[in-house]
């Protein structure tokens, strides 16, 4: 068994996609998925007594691509999903709330390729077509504790005015064929985007065996807040 | 060997007078550092903000270094450019900041500057665009020869970088 110490560490993330702020759009739903490097794999719940052998990697998803948007696979935790459609509230806050759960555990041998959550927000346009309203991505925080992140959402934009009019009229806006592009740095040099909203996420992070493997993740912070402050704070 | 992971994002920029901005970034390290995984440089997308004046890039950075020494701690250097509707690019600012040296997540605000030319060049920049640029990028992050420059301030680039250190305590390094 583990004579020399663990070789694998675990990262457990739970939380929610809390709410969004899109001043110009309404009736939105979001999809999220995780993008991670080759050394990472999502895992089923680990039993307390033993680490699962390396060959048994939980169901499905042994390789790093999660290119599809299937319905929720409940046996594996909630590592991707599609939320409900939310409308702005009638009160002065005009809040868009999803309160959509996230629950996933990863195991890895190497922090390179640390998981990122990629969000895509969609909504109807004037003609009733489903168009993309924003993409965004952020790394899962790595210090254990509670974190609140507000991430900007952007859409790809075409340069020519004629193309903008045509895509508005036909309901076919520019979108990414694979939303995971949002989590990568390469290949973005040629894209023009427009940032037009924010989504607030809450994470609780727990790690196992990172310290035993020699990693120092810094002080755990319990109220890490980053990004612009949201004008509509939801009560805890 | 000790290892350092830099995991974070170039979030965006504020305070620039132009609005469609992108950023070219790179990491420079000393001779004792070796990049094991990740790309050392890149360029963000061009963002035109609809809400507020902060241009958001959310450009991920994920680097894995191995090091034999503390000298030459990684420095992130940035060039912010603006792109107009015709596709022409104009320099908006240069800046650099050291990657933080203590583990954990850090919010960084990197100030930028751009070289001023003669009064003729400044007038031309106001009307036609363009303006002086550095010939060699290493003046952004090194102090040598800076005394020759006359610069003006640009805006601020906001980054969120997380540091994960490995085996630093084995070598007695406190950070």
UniProtKB/TrEMBL annotation, chain A:
<feature type="region of interest" description="Disordered">
    <location>
        <begin position="54"/>
        <end position="75"/>
    </location>
</feature>
<keyword id="KW-0963">Cytoplasm</keyword>
<dbReference type="GO" id="GO:0036038">
    <property type="term" value="C:MKS complex"/>
</dbReference>
<keyword id="KW-0206">Cytoskeleton</keyword>
<dbReference type="Pfam" id="PF07162">
    <property type="entry name" value="B9-C2"/>
</dbReference>
<comment type="function">
    <text>Component of the tectonic-like complex, a complex localized at the transition zone of primary cilia and acting as a barrier that prevents diffusion of transmembrane proteins between the cilia and plasma membranes. Required for ciliogenesis and sonic hedgehog/SHH signaling.</text>
</comment>
<protein>
    <recommendedName>
        <fullName>B9 domain-containing protein 1</fullName>
    </recommendedName>
</protein>
<feature type="compositionally biased region" description="Polar residues">
    <location>
        <begin position="223"/>
        <end position="236"/>
    </location>
</feature>
<keyword id="KW-0970">Cilium biogenesis/degradation</keyword>
<feature type="region of interest" description="Disordered">
    <location>
        <begin position="214"/>
        <end position="236"/>
    </location>
</feature>
<comment type="similarity">
    <text>Belongs to the B9D family.</text>
</comment>
<dbReference type="InterPro" id="IPR010796">
    <property type="entry name" value="C2_B9-type_dom"/>
</dbReference>
<keyword id="KW-0966">Cell projection</keyword>
<dbReference type="GO" id="GO:0060271">
    <property type="term" value="P:cilium assembly"/>
</dbReference>
<comment type="subunit">
    <text>Part of the tectonic-like complex (also named B9 complex).</text>
</comment>
UniProtKB/TrEMBL annotation, chain B:
<protein>
    <recommendedName>
        <fullName>B9 domain-containing protein 2</fullName>
    </recommendedName>
</protein>
<keyword id="KW-0970">Cilium biogenesis/degradation</keyword>
<dbReference type="GO" id="GO:0060271">
    <property type="term" value="P:cilium assembly"/>
</dbReference>
<keyword id="KW-0966">Cell projection</keyword>
<keyword id="KW-0963">Cytoplasm</keyword>
<dbReference type="InterPro" id="IPR010796">
    <property type="entry name" value="C2_B9-type_dom"/>
</dbReference>
<comment type="similarity">
    <text>Belongs to the B9D family.</text>
</comment>
<dbReference type="GO" id="GO:0043015">
    <property type="term" value="F:gamma-tubulin binding"/>
</dbReference>
<dbReference type="Pfam" id="PF07162">
    <property type="entry name" value="B9-C2"/>
</dbReference>
<comment type="function">
    <text>Component of the tectonic-like complex, a complex localized at the transition zone of primary cilia and acting as a barrier that prevents diffusion of transmembrane proteins between the cilia and plasma membranes.</text>
</comment>
<dbReference type="GO" id="GO:0005813">
    <property type="term" value="C:centrosome"/>
</dbReference>
<dbReference type="GO" id="GO:0016020">
    <property type="term" value="C:membrane"/>
</dbReference>
<keyword id="KW-0206">Cytoskeleton</keyword>
<dbReference type="GO" id="GO:0036064">
    <property type="term" value="C:ciliary basal body"/>
</dbReference>
<dbReference type="GO" id="GO:0036038">
    <property type="term" value="C:MKS complex"/>
</dbReference>
């Amino acid at each position: 068994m583990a004579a020399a110490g663990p070789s694998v560490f675990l990262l457990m993330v739970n939380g929610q996609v809390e709410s969004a702020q899109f001043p110009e759009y309404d009736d939105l739903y979001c999809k999220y998925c995780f993008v991670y490097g080759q050394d990472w794999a999502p895992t089923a719940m680990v039993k307390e007594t033993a680490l699962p052998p390396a060959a048994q990697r939980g169901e499905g998803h042994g390789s790093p691509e999660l290119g599809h948007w299937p319905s929720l696979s409940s046996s594996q935790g909630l590592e991707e999903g599609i939320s409900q459609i939310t409308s702005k509230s009638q009160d002065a806050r005009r809040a868009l709330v999803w309160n959509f759960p996230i629950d996933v555990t990863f195991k890895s041998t190497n922090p390179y390729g640390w998981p990122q959550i990629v969000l895509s927000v969609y909504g109807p346009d004037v003609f009733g077509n489903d168009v993309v309203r924003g993409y965004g991505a952020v790394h899962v925080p790595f210090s254990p504790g509670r974190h609140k992140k507000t991430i900007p959402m952007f859409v790809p934009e075409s340069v020519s005015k004629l193309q903008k009019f045509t895509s508005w009229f036909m309901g076919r806006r520019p979108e990414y064929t694979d939303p995971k592009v949002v989590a990568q740095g390469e290949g973005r040099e040629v894209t023009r985007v427009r940032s037009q909203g924010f989504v607030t996420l809450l994470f609780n992070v727990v790690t196992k065996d990172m310290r035993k493997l020699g990693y120092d993740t810094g002080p755990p912070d319990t109220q890490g807040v980053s990004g612009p402050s949201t004008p509509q704070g939801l009560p805890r | 060997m000790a290892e350092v992971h830099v995991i974070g994002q170039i979030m965006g920029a504020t305070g620039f007078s132009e609005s469609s901005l992108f950023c070219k970034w790179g990491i420079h390290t000393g001779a004792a550092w070796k990049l094991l995984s990740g790309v050392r440089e890149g360029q963000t997308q061009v963002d035109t903000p609809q809400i507020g004046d902060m241009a958001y890039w959310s450009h991920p950075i994920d680097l894995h270094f191995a090091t034999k020494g503390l000298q030459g701690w990684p420095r992130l250097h940035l060039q912010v450019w603006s792109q107009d509707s015709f596709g022409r690019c104009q320099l908006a600012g240069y800046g650099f900041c050291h990657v933080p040296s203590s583990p954990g997540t850090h919010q960084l605000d990197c100030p930028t500057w751009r070289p001023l030319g003669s009064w003729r060049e400044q007038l031309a920049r106001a009307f036609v665009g363009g303006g002086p640029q550095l010939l060699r990028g290493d003046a952004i992050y090194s102090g040598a020869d800076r005394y020759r420059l006359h610069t003006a301030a640009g805006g601020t680039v906001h980054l969120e970088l997380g540091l994960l250190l490995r085996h630093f305590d084995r070598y007695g390094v406190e950070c």
